[in-house]
Amino acid sequence: MKRTLLTCITAIMAFPLFAQYTGEGYYRIQNQGEAGRYISIVNDKISEESKNFQPSLSSTFSQYVTAEALKAVKDKTSNPGTILYVSGNKDGLTLDGQFMNTDDLLEKFGKSGYKLKMSNQGELYTSYSGYQIDLVDLGYTASEKVKETYCGVATIQYIGKESVGKYALWDFKKIDNENEYFAINPDISIQVGQNEFKYFTTLYTSFPYQLTDGMKAYYIDNNPEHHNYDTNHVKEPIAQLIEITDKKIPQETPVIIECSSGNVADNKVILLNEKLNPISGNALRGSIFCFLPTLTEDPNQSLKNAVEFRNSSMRVIGYVDGELAFVNDANATYSNNLALTKGQDDKFYIPANRAYLPISSSDATATAKGIKLLLPDAYAVAASITKVMSEDNAVKEGIYTLTGVKVKDDNNTNNLPRGIYIINGKKQVIR
Q1: How many C-alpha atoms does 16 have within 13 Å on its Cβ side?
Q2: Closest Cα partner for 324 from 412, 247, 414, 218?
Q3: Percent of the chain scoring above 90 in pLDDT
Q4: Residue 73 confidence (pLDDT) above 70
Q5: Strand, coil or helix: what is 96?
């Protein structure tokens, strides 16, 4: 399986506090500069300026250029872009993640055939035409309040021990599910029943993982028999959820996650070093990137790498009447403004590593208020209720079982056996 990250190398250092590259596996890579940010892959494109970057003889200390494919982020626990699969040895490593790896990145920089290396001090660099080109955190002097800034490449004379040079030094931190772990941050809290709260989000990653106790994963079944959006036949649009019972989520699989709590640290997952078979019949789709140039950055639209939200063809996670649903927009009451990302162009986009539900244009009006998501048993009951609705949504005369079988022509409940029936389009218990 081809991974997608960057390329890194580590030699045995004399500094015991520096985490080491100990062999192929999942890592995070942290800058040794004052902000201590982590490499995150946010894009698979770089600017023309980056592509045309060449070392300069006149540069005695540094000459650098931004690589839009990479950011250095402060928040890393639930950021899939910080999960890097590292392979190789200290003389030539490849970092893979989010469908981008450092070999491809170097090729896009015009340095085809070169590999990243790691010095004993922790530099990530490659030698090119007699120059040392380093991967650097361009925001190394930023205050702790700055969460993100771009990484880049630079020609550097020699790092030495000066603190100013630490922006080109990196530490490897292996994912061990204790000190370094990946956890899921829920976007939504909805009330189920009287007092119980459940926490949900959608997730789409380039790596496979397994949920831990207290967590569940679902997808929306695209079988036409398991969803009904047509208001001519349905009281309200509904769709059936399918639980992934073994809790193993294949790579490139958009899912709905039910978290164990609203606390991120309680929602750790196990990263899997194996390729899992894809799930068939999944109606969800995912967005791996949401790279949007800001007003202060290069406005070159060729750098935009995001899925624009269209209410005529998409629905995003939310709730309807207190129940989990896919909805028309991302009202703040649904998900703390996380279901969509607003761009500088005033358009909305699917956030990075999130899922959405595509719909046909013919279903746009019927699903304007949302599509409720139900587990199979609940879906069967709800679907059976629709059988007693008329073509114009008027209630049919008569009494029906939950499976849609008509048992009386009128609504007189006398002499009915005990049970649950559908009367006037509503469930009613006969004792």
Answers
A1: 0
A2: 218
A3: 30
A4: yes
A5: strand
